[in-house]
Specification:
Blueprint (H helix, E strand, L loop, with lengths): L1 E2 L27 H11 L4 H4 L24 H5 L4 H16 L10 E3 L3 E4 L2 E4 L5 E3 L4 E4 L1 H10 L7 H19 L1 H7 L9 H19 L8 E3 L2 H13 L2 H8 L13 H14 L17
Helix pairs in contact: 1-10, 4-6, 6-8, 8-11, 9-11
Bound molecules: zinc ion.
Length: about 290
């Protein structure tokens, strides 16, 4: 992935976190654990996330924006931390074009380390990056993602990180369209054809759509997406399939408990999004008989 050095970045789309902080998370050595956590990385699990008690989220005035110096695509070369601003800006700028004027509601990303307070309750790194519908914000522990991707052998590439961000913004789109609320009100069924899995593969599809369109705007901070990037994204999508995670952590696969879909489903819908570049294709995630086809 290459960045456009002249593209303007808007660091205000990243917000300082409130509460939590400090305390690094001990990363166990086993691949099983890593894969399990990677599954959660893409995790939006209504059962886990939705029930939280509103806390003092939003009380951010004391903290300063650590990304303020990220002003152009060239700054990503100078300071790798600025890449998060580029991903968030690019994803939101694309989705802004897909809604009628003024209808897209921007959602900030809140980077945090260790723990964070959100309107969905307190969270720590172990829940992985997530989207909180109650405050419409994306939460990411950037250091934690770095460590995980390194251990997965995906370091040095930007694309898997961008996929994580794009997937979480997929849940924001679902909130704006009302799809997420529909699934939520239907309860937390699991299983290969469950609404929950369909919600997740749709978010993967939206991520694919953004990847396809990420370089089309000349003002986009993303200048180039390579075949290597696409391979890494496809690998990442498969690595977080419920079947892969269950096989490596439990030694057996139990489709009835799936919440995010199989490796094949996730790759399939990411691919549908990327191939078509059309978000309307992603609505088929709720009508398709066979999510692997
Ligand atoms: Zn998700």
């Amino acid at each position: 992935m290459e960045f456009n050095p002249n593209a303007k970045l808007d660091s205000s789309q990243l917000q300082p976190s409130s509460g939590g902080g400090g305390g690094g998370v001990a990363l166990g050595g086993g691949l099983g654990l890593i894969v399990m956590i990677l599954g959660l990385i893409f995790g939006f699990n209504p059962g886990d996330i939705m029930g939280g008690v509103p806390s003092n989220a939003g009380n951010n005035s004391a903290a300063s924006n650590q990304y303020e110096h990220c002003q152009t695509g060239a700054d990503v070369q100078a300071d790798r931390e600025c890449r998060w601003v580029a991903y968030v800006n690019s994803v939101q700028s694309y989705w802004n074009t897909q809604f009628q004027q003024g209808q897209y509601k921007p959602a900030p990303t809140v980077p945090f380390t260790g723990a964070v307070n959100t309107a969905c309750g307190a969270a720590n790194s172990q829940v992985g990056p997530f989207y909180c519908p109650a405050d419409q914000k994306v939460y990411i522990d950037t250091e934690f993602i770095n460590q995980l991707l390194q251990q997965l052998g995906a370091q040095g590439g930007y694309s898997a990180e961008a996929y994580i961000i794009a997937h979480e913004y997929g849940h924001h789109i679902q909130t704006l369209t009302g799809q997420l609320q529909k699934v939520q009100s239907a309860g937390n069924q699991t299983g290969p054809d469950s609404p929950q899995v369909r919600l997740e593969v749709q978010a993967d599809c939206y991520a694919g759509v953004w990847f396809k369109n990420s370089t089309s705007d000349p003002n986009s901070p993303i200048a180039k997406v390579t075949q290597d990037d696409l391979n890494r994204i496809a690998d990442a999508a498969a690595a977080v399939g419920d079947d892969r995670i269950q096989a490596s952590t439990a030694g057996q696969v139990n489709p009835e408990t799936w919440t995010h879909g199989s490796a094949k489903m996730r790759q399939n819908w990411l691919g549908k999004g990327f191939t078509s570049g059309d978000p309307n294709v992603c609505s088929q995630a709720f009508t398709a008989q066979d999510l692997e086809a």
